[in-house]
């Protein structure tokens, strides 16, 4: 992949990522607050009774813009993060396509995992800022903190607090998501392999369901590590410590907290992101000499050309094989003819030798008696 092609894909990923993040941000905020709640929703001291209760309380206490707290750092982080994720996934996948345009499932998982791993350098600092901004409004009458205050308090090093949990979450999510998305695209494609834009959106949304659900436990652990604990709340020192304490204090069910919110946020967000990303590539297509995006008209035409070339190669190979066989037969005939000539000559030489010997004996003078 050339530098220009990388910039081309990164720019589309940047636009698509920012749009998708903005569209579903209120869901992400509610999900984060539910995950950060340390008590059972049915308990008397529970701050939120569920997703709807969280939404209503946030809207009532903080207003409409309260639902978008932490949006700016999210856009700043998500746009390059999605750009990196989409570009790396495409780059790795391109290395494993066969001549028919197919790729094995294990390589799809590898491509997605690499994409998720590469995004963490950008994701983690913005994640910790986002979750602290999102949970700051929970304290009624509390100080309205700004992103710069969080950065100043944490310092550069602590912006990567919880990075291991973030790595586990993002790698797991991306590996499942991109491999599922690719399979669903094929399932929703028509008989020619073309994907209607709405099928792209459907594939993107559906792929987010298993990916978000299976990555939720890691997301819960990441959130708990990154959120600043309030007075009386448990603090966590790494993944193992967080898993042990959460399980001991809240039970296994705590690891599924925010799963519904995460699914409702991740599925449409990635669906919108991939939808815009692929439409941009279709609308502003540039042929860099590589493989066009799957399901597009360009990819179908490209595959037809490859199939035609393959068919020509098969015909040429067959002709070469037949020509080689004909040449081999002719060579064998020549060898057989030469062998026959040699046999005749040998026979003639043998017969000639016999006649010469006979004449010698016939012309030999009789022996002289003494």
Automatic annotation (TrEMBL):
Q: Where are the Solcar repeats?
A: 4-95, 103-187, 195-283
**One Pfam match, by short name?**
Mito_carr
Which InterPro entries has this protein been placed in? MCP, MCP_dom_sf, MCP_transmembrane, Mito_Solute_Carrier
The entry's family comment says: Belongs to the mitochondrial carrier (TC 2.A.29) family.
Protein name per the record: Mitochondrial carrier protein
What subcellular locations does the record give?
Mitochondrion inner membrane
**Membrane topology summary:** Multi-pass membrane protein
Report TM segments. Answer: none
Quote the PANTHER family the UniProt record gives: CALCIUM-BINDING MITOCHONDRIAL CARRIER PROTEIN ARALAR1, MITOCHONDRIAL 2-OXODICARBOXYLATE CARRIER 1-RELATED
Phylogenetic lineage:
Eukaryota, Metazoa, Ecdysozoa, Arthropoda, Hexapoda
- Principal localisation: mitochondrion
Q: Name one GO biological process term.
A: malate-aspartate shuttle
Question: Which terms are listed as keywords in the entry?
Answer: Calcium, Membrane, Mitochondrion, Mitochondrion inner membrane, Repeat, Transmembrane, Transmembrane helix, Transport
CC annotations in GO: mitochondrial inner membrane
Q: Which GO terms describe its molecular function?
A: L-aspartate transmembrane transporter activity; L-glutamate transmembrane transporter activity
Assembly notes: Homodimer (via N-terminus).
């Amino acid at each position: 992949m050339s530098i220009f092609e990388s910039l081309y894909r990164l720019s589309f990923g940047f636009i698509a990522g920012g749009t998708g993040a903005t569209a579903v941000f209120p869901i992400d905020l509610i999900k984060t607050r539910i995950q950060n709640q340390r008590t059972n929703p049915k308990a008397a001291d529970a701050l939120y009774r569920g997703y709807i209760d969280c939404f209503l309380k946030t809207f009532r206490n903080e207003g409409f813009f309260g639902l978008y707290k932490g949006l700016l750092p999210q856009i700043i982080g998500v746009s390059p993060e999605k750009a990196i994720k989409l570009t790396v996934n495409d780059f790795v996948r391109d290395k494993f396509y066969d001549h028919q345009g197919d790729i094995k499932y294990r390589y799809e998982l590898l491509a997605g995992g690499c994409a998720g791993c590469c995004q963490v350098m950008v994701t983690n600092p913005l994640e910790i800022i986002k979750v602290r901004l999102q949970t700051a409004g929970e304290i009624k009458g509390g100080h309205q903190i700004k992103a710069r205050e969080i950065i100043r308090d944490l310092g550069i090093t602590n912006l990567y607090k919880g990075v291991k949990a973030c790595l586990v979450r993002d790698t797991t999510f991306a590996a499942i998501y991109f491999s599922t998305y690719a399979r669903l695209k094929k399932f929703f494609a028509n008989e020619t392999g073309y994907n209607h834009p709405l099928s792209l959106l459907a594939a993107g949304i559906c792929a987010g369901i298993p990916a978000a659900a299976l990555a939720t436990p890691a997301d819960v652990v990441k959130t708990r590590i990154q959120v600043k604990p309030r007075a009386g709340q448990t603090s966590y020192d790494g993944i193992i410590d967080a898993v042990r304490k959460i399980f001991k204090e809240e039970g296994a069910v705590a690891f599924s907290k925010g799963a519904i919110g995460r699914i409702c946020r991740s599925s449409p967000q990635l669906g919108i992101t991939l939808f815009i990303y692929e439409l941009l590539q279709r609308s502003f297509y540039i042929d860099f000499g590589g493989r066009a995006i799957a399901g597009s008209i360009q990819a179908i035409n490209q595959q037809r050309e490859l199939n035609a070339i393959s068919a020509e190669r098969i015909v040429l190979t067959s002709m070469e094989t037949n020509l080689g066989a004909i040449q081999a037969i002719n060579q064998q005939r020549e060898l057989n003819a030469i062998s026959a000539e040699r046999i005749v000559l040998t026979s003639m030489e043998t017969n000639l030798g016999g006649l010469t010997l006979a004449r010698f004996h016939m012309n030999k003078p009789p022996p002289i008696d003494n």
